[in-house]
Amino acid sequence: MELVGVSEIAELAGVSRQAVSNWRSRSKNFPSPLAELSSGPVWLKENIENWLKNKDGKMTKVVSFINLKGGVGKTTTTVAIAEFLALEHQKRVLVVDLDPQTNATIALIHESVWEERDNAGLTLLQMFRDKLDRTNKFDVNQAIIQGVSNLKIPRLSLLPSSLGLIELQDYYLHGLTQKNPAVNKDNILKSALKPVLDNYDYVLIDCPPNLQFITTNGINVSTGYVIPTIPDILSTYGIPQIVGRVETFSKENGIDIQPLGIIISKMREIGLHRSKYEQLKREAAEGKKPPIFDRVIDEAAQIAESADVTSNVNTLRQKYGYGNNYANYAALTEEFIWRCQ
Ligand SMILES: Nc1ncnc2c1ncn2[C@@H]1O[C@H](COP(=O)(O)OP(=O)(O)O)[C@@H](O)[C@H]1O
Ligand SMILES: [Mg+2]
Q1: What is the pTM of this model?
Q2: Cα–Cα distance for residue pair 24/2, rounded to 1 Å
């Protein structure tokens, strides 16, 4: 952890100490000091650097998609929002597939391409493995694939996952303690992404359905997170645990990760879904749950079929359906943009 005081901030930003004082008093979102020392307040250097970038509207939004349950639409929502951001809003987007199930990867590139790259050490498996083997083989620039999806979107890139992570995650933490105890287990993705983060407007991270070290690697690099869920009892059950865990993690690490909201997906017109949805909205209004995105994604066959990267489509309308699905994803993405601000 690197700390800075007022003078260092002034130097970092190339402004006077007075200008820094003005920022502190006038700018609502200026980071709070980590501590007040006798020499004056000190901040985490990283928070200040992020604020300085954000000040000019340039900061990369890094958003994790988290739910403890599988099958709730995390991957589908991540991929759709990424495609809409890149195609309809001309944003530069990176999808990071952190889930060992590799679904976002397979939704965005052909399986044979994945296999080739996985064998060549060009997936996240190599990034994690390097820490166990004390090697430096993973090259993030080479691992990122540009122009992915069957819509061939130039501004959309993918950092692919690997099925190999399924096995690796079982012995990883024990292995690290044995072989490389100095490694911060939550900081592996963050340090790997650092050199490329500025190349993107949005980085969307598809997390595995748990809160273990792979997910905390996603949380650690994020500026915000969303919770995709089906509006039913089992899918929403773990939401307080997610919110609590991220809050604790933020505090422990001196970083700021905001809950951007709950995205309702695979909604069916049945009483159970409707009443759960209404309950979530009430709880959000009372501040007991994160906000609920206004736009809801319905359960639809064409959305399920969108996961097939080999299907021949040319536009978002063709891919997601000409009816409500397209309009709902378009509106959801616009909401996503303003909730990220
Ligand atoms: N809105 C939807 N309508 C119909 N099927 C969907 C929808 N969203 C996702 N699916 C399908 O449901 C399954 C689980 O979705 P997925 O996005 O993989 O969830 P998760 O990543 O949370 O495990 C997949 O087969 C997917 O194609
Ligand atoms: Mg998934």
Answers
A1: 0.87
A2: 20
